[in-house]
Amino acid sequence: MSVVLVGCGNMGFAMLRGWIGTGTLPPGNVHVVEPLDTLRLRAEDQGVNVHSTAASLPAALAPAIVIVAVKPQVIGDVLADYGRYAQPGRDTIFVSVAAGVRIDRLEHALAPGAPVVRVMPNTPAAVGHGAMVMCANPSVTDRQLAAVRQLMAASGEVTEIADEALMDAVTAVSGSGPAYVFHLIEALSEAGRAVGLPDEIAGRLAMQTVFGAAAYARESADDPGTLREQVTSPNGTTAAALDVLMRPGGLAALIGEAVTAARDRAVELGR
Ligand SMILES: NC(=O)C1=CN([C@@H]2O[C@H](COP(=O)(O)OP(=O)(O)OC[C@H]3O[C@@H](n4cnc5c(N)ncnc54)[C@H](OP(=O)(O)O)[C@@H]3O)[C@@H](O)[C@H]2O)C=CC1
Ligand SMILES: O=C(O)[C@@H]1CCC=N1
């Protein structure tokens, strides 16, 4: 199965690393189109074929999947260069990871009835722990959907949704979500330094604590609220901290506000 990846920036490269690292795609079967020299060289280091524009893709190439990972603002223009793979008689599936951009707009940029799958990935795909949410149009056959599902499964856990309107909420929770968690690691690490820990130890403890808590929450039969209570000794240190985090306007309110802002921005990007 040959795959064309259009745009190899933060998200495109995260997926590429996962696919090559897990052996899901042989590098020779992957063609990356990326205009920026540094990013193209970074992709080339993974052993894949690289191109600065769509024009230099081999004329005889019949990709099973074209995955477009460019910014939402340019995706319409970029897709026009790949319309040849959407002509009748072709069997290419188009995958877009662009935030906010609806399937009808993608179809419009390609050809009426082109098989399109919208995927909202996240950057932990680079290490096989992505959250990958897929939504397909009716033109995608079961066989085609299975091929995309198989590719996405190499990047992490796959969820399929039928209601495209939910993709903006998905984007706000899992697409942008790693940034919230990275910020938590930064903040915990900085707070550790502020109470006297050496830089290196504060950073390591913050990282391992987030990693360990997520791994434990994932494996445990208990829900996160129960696991939180198990850490919280009556009148102890955690209770003192949670009095701050769980006060009105605390962390839950802030996260709620942040997710709503991200969801609203996804809606705007789709206009
Ligand atoms: N970053 C993330 O965590 C996530 C991103 N996404 C989505 O992924 C998409 C890409 O985001 P991200 O990777 O962060 O953005 P980046 O800017 O890092 O990557 C996009 C790359 O595509 C290149 N590009 C522009 N035009 C073309 C073209 N015609 N052909 C091939 N490549 C082109 C850009 O080059 P140049 O800079 O020169 O324009 C850039 O290097 C967005 O639509 C975003 O919504 C989805 C989920 C998570
Ligand atoms: O910030 C963004 O718009 C993209 C989409 C989800 C994560 N990054």
Automatic annotation (TrEMBL):
Pathway as given in its UniProt record: Amino-acid biosynthesis; L-proline biosynthesis; L-proline from L-glutamate 5-semialdehyde: step 1/1
A Gene Ontology BP annotation from the UniProt entry: L-proline biosynthetic process
InterPro entries the record matches: 6-PGluconate_DH-like_C_sf, NAD(P)-bd_dom_sf, P5C_Rdtase_cat_N, P5CR_dimer, Pyrroline-COOH_reductase
Any matching Pfam family: F420_oxidored
Lineage top rank: taxon: Bacteria
Chief localization: cytoplasm
Positions of the Pyrroline-5-carboxylate reductase dimerisation domain: 164-269
Catalytic activity from the UniProt record: L-proline + NAD(+) = (S)-1-pyrroline-5-carboxylate + NADH + 2 H(+); L-proline + NADP(+) = (S)-1-pyrroline-5-carboxylate + NADPH + 2 H(+)
Database matches in Gene3D superfamilies: NAD(P)-binding Rossmann-like Domain (3.40.50.720), ProC C-terminal domain-like (1.10.3730.10)
Binding site for NADP(+): A69, V70, K71, P72
Keyword set, alphabetical order: Amino-acid biosynthesis, Cytoplasm, NADP, Oxidoreductase, Proline biosynthesis
The protein's role, per its UniProt record: Catalyzes the reduction of 1-pyrroline-5-carboxylate (PCA) to L-proline.
NCBIfam families xrefs: proC
Similarity comment text for this entry: Belongs to the pyrroline-5-carboxylate reductase family.
PANTHER family to which the protein is assigned, alphabetical: PYRROLINE-5-CARBOXYLATE REDUCTASE, PYRROLINE-5-CARBOXYLATE REDUCTASE 3
Protein name: Pyrroline-5-carboxylate reductase
Gene assigned in the entry: proC
